[in-house]
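Attaching the record inline, Q. Sequence:
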Amino acid sequence: MVNQIPVPQAKYELLTDVRQPRWKTQVLCLVLVSLVLGILFVTRAWLGIVILRSPRAETVDPETVIDNAKIATWLRRARMYAESTKENQNADRNNSISSPQHFYTNFSGQIIVCYYTIQSDLNTLWELRPSHIDPDLCTHIIVGFASVVNCSLDLDSSSTIYQQVVALKKSQPELRVMISAGGSNELHSGFSEMIKNHFNRKRFIKSVLNVTKTFGFDGLDLDWEFPAWIGADEREKIRFVQLLEELRRELYRAKEKLILSVAVAAPQAIIDQSYMVAEMAKYVDFVNLMSYDYHFYVWYYPITGLNAPLYPHATESGYLSTLNVNFSAHYWLLKGMPKEKLIIGIPTYGHSYKLDNPINHDLYAPANGFGNLGSMGFVPYFTVCEFLQNEAKNVFDEESKVPFAYKDREWISYDDVTSIRHKAEWIRANNFGGAMILSLNVDDWNNTCKFNESFPLTRTVTRILRYHED
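Structure, as predicted:
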């Protein structure tokens, strides 16, 4: 019968035909896939050989090859801080350190250390020149950064600028000017090579004595980021202490009254791995705590965060609750650094993020990259002021005591006059050795913020710690 045509059966037969193995097609696909993978493998191997044979292979760091190589050191530090957070955010660490809130009256010993970078990183189109610096702002100016090359201090081609900064002492005799050794080669051929043995360290110390005498520097700052950190020789932190001991001994022997300081990390994980704190304290005059870059955009932690919070936010727990100035400072005390030798770092720059959704602009909002302002996520304070003048919204976080600002997809964490006043008063309340500014270059030295004064952030610290304003 016509009505009994087995249509379902026809569909079934079609389905079973599709499911039949087509072994010839499968073999051909397998051969093609293998061929493509083989080509990719050979190509990658060939490229690796080419790179290894390149004369620059030993010095190229793919994470710091950027248009403006002079920002590489700042960028690397922020990434290392982020890496320490990634590796330790689930760690069960002691985060119960607290800060006393009573005020002391002994202000006489507190100093204000200001970094001045001679390179063009993070400056405006008009470079901050030594002649623009107010010599009454700081008790110490650290000029950086000299490199460590062939186990010697290398000033590159910037001798004139070093001389101009030292000349500021003519108008302010109490000012102390130091030179900082750091630079973009420190991970590969700088500090690590220099400290390997006594002969290398002796060569470095001899170059330091020669440079400080030639230029009239009052001391040396060591900015090694960081001894014995991930992938490095664990013995580096022992050798670093040996360098400090030998430096101090040779300075005494040469009858040079030179100041010796070290720029040190703030995250707990790096402190534990990189420093023998109590031993370092025997030989340094002070340490400059790099208490900033606590939060920075990285692809594996793509949310907004505060660059330099004074205190933790209520929503933070575990290791995340240690990423703030208060904890870092008191952890250094716990490890054995005397209060009077601990100088608290204050940034004059912020960090930018690109928001996923401009409607979601709070703290911990999803982000997918650096913001458009600044350079590689670093934003000078004068650029922040321009951002606010262009109708960006400003929010002050009362828990962390620092602000952030946003407009459209741009989000910036930074310090302003209010937050820095909180920090300076906190430094005074806890009787630390003083404050460190990073850096004069990215403070508003050209009055972009319309405060009718230059260097408003640094000047706020000076008024509170040096002139004792309430």
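DSSP finds 13 helices and 14 strands in the chain. The CA atoms of residues 25 and 123 lie 62 Å apart.

More tomorrow.
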